[in-house]
Amino acid sequence: MNLTALNQTDMCEDYSCPERSVSLSVYVILYVAAAAVALLTVCGNLLVIISVSHFKQLHTPANILILSLAASDLLVGVFVMPFHLSWLIESCWISGPVMCSVFNFVTFQATSASVHTVALIAVDRFLALSFPFFYSEKISLTVICTAALLNWLFSLIYNFTLLYINGNFADSMCPGQCLYIVDGVSSFIDLLIVFVMPCTLIIILYTHVFVIAKKHATAIRALQVHNSTESSKNKISDKSERKAALALGILVFVFLLCLLPYYIFSLTNFLRDDSFSNVINSVLILFYLNSSINPLMYALLYPWFKRSLKIITSFKVFNKDSSLINVISQ
């Protein structure tokens, strides 16, 4: 991820924190709004994680990937969003060099993990619709959990290596600043791995998914099913897969809408100079807000999340055998 790639010589050039330029009331309102957004992000994604983890009915491959995405969104809500919003409000980094290193690493980690998880969601839906027999036989919870864990492990090793080889863990940050060093070659590689390759894969696979879903819908409408039980079961199963693909497709589409503006500005900055860094860091808020939007979309798109939410907020989740409660069917 390429926030503001700077040369080391640019890091400490006569920097001092600017005086506060807004009134106290506006200052307080900004902090209250920032805290509310961060709290919404944390609580919303915690509810998703608890729902998928607790209720056995929700232990499906697609939901495991939603759980992985919620975990990366939770990291954004806890470690990234509060510090970034505070940084923008203050126009100065006030949390010290250690938290700056944590902030930068978690930002890279959460970003790459979420982008690659969305790519895994696209692969999952493509396989489910294109090769249903292969999917039902080969894509088990173990396979999906392994893929999700490998994704996180890859992101962890990749981002630590990227930051370490560019000297970002040395305690040499100037007061009031939280910058990181990424050279031109590393920035280009990062752009390919975290943006170009996964997003290209997402777009290609979901284009195929919607073409297949449309063909299936047309075939089902044309098929006259009378009293065949097996045909009815196949129809219901196929409809379920198409509905899952549509819901996740909306989720992926919104994700790309939130991601693209930042990377367009980032690429412009990469090709020119650092004069757009403030604009880029502001556009980055839209990408972070996707972590707040996702739980709201789950509530709109998935009836099971609404039912899980009712059970959790009514504390019925603490009842014996609550994990066996039916949260999918009406």
In short:
With 330 residues, the protein is mainly alpha-helical. It has helices at 24-54, 61-90, 96-130, 132-138, 141-165, 184-222, 229-271, 277-301, 303-313, and strands spanning 5-6, 180-181. It has a single domain (22-324), classed as Rhodopsin 7-helix transmembrane proteins (Rhopdopsin 7-helix transmembrane proteins, Up-down Bundle).
Tell me the number of helical segments per DSSP (H or I, 4 or more residues long).
9
**Fourth-level CATH superfamily:** Rhodopsin 7-helix transmembrane proteins
CATH class descriptor:
Mainly Alpha
CATH fold-level name = Rhopdopsin 7-helix transmembrane proteins
The portion of residues assigned to helices is over 70%
Compressed to H and E, one letter per element, the order equals: EHHHHHEHHHH
Radius of gyration: 22 Å
Structural class: mainly alpha
Low-confidence stretches: 2-11, 229-233
Shape: globular
Terminal Cα separation, in Å? Answer: 42 Å
Number of domain modules: 1
The total of beta strands comes to 2
CATH architecture descriptor text: Up-down Bundle
Portion of residues in beta strands equals under 5%
Strand order of the largest sheet: 1-2
> What can be said about the biggest beta sheet?
2 strands, parallel
Mean pLDDT: 81
